[in-house]
Write a structure and sequence with these properties.
heterotrimer, A alpha/beta (255), B mainly alpha (325), C mainly alpha (290), B: 325 residues, mainly alpha, ABC transporter involved in vitamin B12 uptake, BtuC, globular, C: 290 residues, 3% strand
Chain lengths: 255, 325, 290
């Protein structure tokens, strides 16, 4: 089966620092893949390379068989890769609903003249956007807070909103950057259920950066371990946890 | 009987019937022209958070293009205004393509430079524009009713623009550029669209201004004018179209109401801006549009212990969703 | 003739440099363009004018009070307006809007108080020239140049070799970390504004001596901004270089091409430069961490 995402020997340097060194990975459809490693190991940099914020210095990235190396971020998103950010990046002053609708603007196929004249096409497309956004909010359990300001939501809900927004792109691949950051054990467990639910309902592939080991263990089908930009282990969470190299790299930082 | 003649006759009949003298007409026209220019600024600065200190340059381009075409080439005034607007937009498109990839402060300085360059250039090209002595004998193609109609149209179009996917994309850029890109928005393209939009409105306002004053000089469209557009937008409230309209009305009307303060107008203006930004940065409306619903709700709150939902729809156009925050 | 223009250009550039360094310092600290800076220079010039014309003080005391006045106003701007906006956690553009407002206020106040008439200092300024080879160099220009050079050398020493300068550079790198490490951030920022204001005051007085004193002379701050951008926003050495380059090019264009197109060329130069090197000559490209 064709991998949803394939990265081949990707490299990225900043000045003299090798942020990513010879990184390769293959993501299978419908699987949840974890990306773990100590801070500064290059995990977010990998995300940024996939989504086009950075252009790799070497190597190739294929999405669904298509070469997307160096494709600009907005195009990558349009092609079906959604992402969340380490520091939640919501449209703070806009409502919860508007945050999700904006991500659906790709579905709003009307032109400016139609929007001026309030044509039938315009009105039906706008209505469809509303409905789709509402249903996504229902899935994540935020539909009762649709009109609230995004920044007024509690932290955990903001995370969910960010994920809902990414889902509005109808993505085939979802990149989650530390979704459990700042959560306690209960919240993390809820998040695990939530993410698994999303994967099951929408049949998407997920690549996830995470530090919470219990989240990784419970959620991920496979894990890649990174240290100083290099892959040091790949396998199921169980295999990786008992790998000596991984233990050495982390030494005492398991949560 | 030309189209312009017809418009002027209708206007005279209207103002004669309601007893509106030319002084009041002038105030209405100037206010409307300011509203149009500020609406464009609002989209650019209030909704997209791009700062341009050069939009007076687009007003100037619109004014001179329309004036020269209408006066020297006897072009129909509607076409002249459209030409001024289109040319202004074209220049904005070129300028934006070059400068919008630069960081915010750099973009700002290039816009400023642009505005100044236009002014200096128009001063220099005596043959074409009359230079610093000005360009005169412009036909009076800005009768009050026509300008009012333009203003209403301008507001409607801006409202539609903001409440569609275009406006939403712009606000998302304002809120978080990186996230906007991550949800598929071509930030550069939309920034440019916003810039061109503001230039269209500035050019439109400038063209009408030329038709009203019937005489223009490059110096009227200087850095001070660009600053005035920005400060009016701020006072009215960033992210609010109705706020910008209010701001423009206040800024144009207040000096008339307080004639004796004429010398201190700009001074008070500056003080107002500083106070607003320090104490109530949201300005008059900030991120919210005027809404009859809220007004009714507030009034009801005054009379009942419990708050109730308001009844009427929003002020302009029956929208299912207000641009509320 | 060319040498003459060159010297004038460098001298004018020196005035721009005094403003541009203050501008750059403030930008590197607070990440905002202080539009009111030119008006601070204007206030310095007018203060010296009042001291000398109305109160009859001789040059040096009048100049010192003028510089002090400029520094005080600059500090006032920060203390009263900017600091409050910063502590409100308002977005940076609000600082810029406030600066714009302050700029308008000062300009208009000067207009109201002094009227728009062009004024001069009452001292007898040197109008003689010094002959060096074939060129006649204006004494005033040379003196201005000398003063500017001394001040800039002192400023470079201040930034690189003193504790104060270290504090400032630390804050420019990372506001938050610096405060954790014990640097009194707000106070250092206030000092910088005071210092930048003083520099602007000198610039204002020199400008007033060379040309005239009038309410809109603060627009020279715009040149300083251009110079800072050319040199790379946030870089003090860049600002100095940018200022000198701008001064020279401006003067040469005015002399050899057309004086009314002088500003046009300055801006065209700016745009071309930004297209080629978007962060300016010495600018640092800072990217947001995603």
């Amino acid at each position: 089966m064709k991998p949803v995402l394939e990265m081949q020997n990707v490299e990225k340097h900043f000045g003299g620092v090798r942020a990513i060194d010879d990184f390769s990975v293959k993501l299978e459809q419908g699987k949840i893949h974890g990306l773990i490693g100590p801070n500064g190991a290059g995990k977010t940099t990998i995300f940024n390379n996939i989504t086009g914020i950075y252009v790799p210095d070497a190597g190739k990235i294929y999405f669904d068989g298509q070469d997307i190396t160096g494709t600009p971020p907005h195009k990558v998103a349009q092609m079906g890769i959604g992402r969340t950010f380490q520091n939640i990046r919501l449209f703070s002053n806009l409502s919860v609903m508007e945050n999700v609708i904006i991500a659906s603007n790709l579905d709003a196929t009307y032109n400016m003249l139609e929007s001026f004249l309030l044509s039938k096409n315009y009105r039906s497309k706008e209505k469809a956007l509303q409905e789709k956004a509402m249903s996504l909010l229902e899935v994540v359990g935020l539909s009762d807070r649709a009109e609230e300001r995004a920044s007024s939501l509690p932290y955990g809900h903001q995370r969910k909103l960010e994920i809902a927004r990414a889902m509005a792109l109808n993505p085939k691949l979802l990149l989650l950057d530390e979704p459990a950051a700042g959560m306690n054990a209960d919240e993390s467990a809820e998040l695990v259920e939530f993410v698994r639910g999303i994967r099951d309902k929408f049949d998407i592939t997920i690549l996830m950066i995470e530090h919470h080991m219990d989240v990784v263990t419970n959620l991920c089908d496979y894990v890649t371990v990174l240290n100083f930009g290099k892959t040091i282990a790949v396998g199921t969470p169980e295999e990786v946890k008992s790998d000596k190299r991984v233990i050495d790299a982390y030494l005492g930082s398991e949560e | 009987m030309s189209l312009l003649q017809i418009f002027q006759d209708i206007n005279s009949a209207f103002t004669g019937f309601f007893g509106i003298n030319s002084y009041v007409q002038g105030i209405v026209i100037l206010t409307c022209i300011n509203i149009i220019a500020v609406l464009g600024m609002s989209v650019l600065t209030g909704f997209t958070r791009l700062f341009s200190f050069g939009n007076a340059g687009f007003m100037s381009i619109g004014a001179y293009t329309a004036a020269i075409l209408a006066t020297r080439y006897n072009l129909n005034f509607l076409l002249a205004i459209v030409a001024g607007t289109v040319f202004s937009a074209f220049i904005a498109f070129l300028l934006g393509t070059i400068t919008l990839r630069l960081k915010g402060d750099y973009f700002l300085i290039t816009c400023l430079g642009f505005g100044e360059c236009v002014r200096v250039l128009f001063n220099y090209t005596k043959g074409l524009t009359g230079g610093s002595a000005g360009f005169s004998n412009i036909p009076n193609y800005s009768p009050m009713l026509f300008v009012l109609v333009c203003t209403v149209l301008a507001f409607y179009l801006a409202w539609r623009f903001i409440h569609s996917k275009y406006g939403r994309n712009l606000t998302s850029i304002r809120e978080n550029e990186l996230a906007a890109e991550a949800v598929g928005i071509n930030v550069f393209r939309f920034k440019r669209m916003s810039f061109v939009f503001s230039a269209v409105y500035a050019g439109w306002a400038g063209a009408l201004y030329a038709g009203y004053l019937m005489y223009i000089v490059p110096a009227s469209f200087n850095l001070g004018k660009s600053c005035e557009l920005i400060t009016t937008t701020v006072i009215g409230g960033l992210g609010s179209l109705t706020g910008s309209v209010m701001g423009a009305i206040i800024v144009t009307l207040l000096p008339e109401a307080f004639r004796f303060l004429a010398n201190y107008r700009m001074l008070l203006y500056g003080i107002a801006v500083v106070l607003v930004i320090m104490l109530r940065p949201a300005g008059l409306y900030g991120y919210k549009e005027f809404s009859l619903k809220r007004l009714v709700r507030r009034i009801k709150k005054l009379f009942t212990p419990k708050s109730t939902k308001g009844g009427d729809a929003g002020k302009k156009g029956g929208l299912t969703n207000e641009a509320s925050a | 003739m060319f040498i003459q223009q060159l010297v004038t250009g460098i001298s004018v550039g020196g005035i721009y440099a005094l403003l541009a360094t203050g501008y750059s310092l403030i930008y590197s600290l607070l990440d905002f363009s202080n539009w009111a800076h030119g008006e601070v220079a204007m206030i310095g010039a007018y203060t010296a004018l009042i001291m000398s014309s109305n109160l009859g003080l001789p040059f040096i005391p009048a100049a010192i009070i003028g510089i002090g006045g400029a520094a005080a106003v600059s500090y006032f701007n920060e203390r009263v307006a900017y600091r409050r906006i910063r502590h409100n956690h308002s977005p940076n553009m609000f600082l810029m809007i406030a600066a714009m407002g302050l700029s308008t206020v000062y300009q208009q106040a000067a207009n109201v108080i002094f009227t728009g008439k062009y004024k001069q200092y009452p001292f007898r300024l040197p109008v003689s020239t010094v002959q060096i080879g074939n060129a006649y160099l204006g004494v005033l220009d040379l003196v201005s140049l000398g003063i500017t050079a001394i001040i800039i050398i002192w400023l470079i020493y201040l930034i690189n070799k003193t504790q104060f300068g270290l504090n400032v550079r630390a804050i420019a790198c990372n506001n938050y970390t610096a405060s954790i490490l014990g640097v009194k951030v707000d106070r250092s920022i206030a000092y910088v504004f005071f210092l930048a204001g003083g520099l602007a005051g000198v610039a204002g007085i020199l400008y007033g001596m060379k040309y005239n004193i009038f309410p809109t002379m603060g627009n020279v701050g715009l040149k300083a901004f251009i110079a800072s951008v050319i040199g790379g926003l946030g870089s003090v050495p860049g600002a100095i270089v940018g200022a000198i380059v701008l001064g020279i090019i401006e003067t040469l264009v005015a002399a050899y091409v057309n004086s009314s197109l002088r500003d046009f060329f300055s801006f065209a130069l700016l745009i071309v430069l930004l297209l080629v090197k978007p962060s300016g000559l010495f600018g640092v490209d800072v990217q947001d961490k995603a």
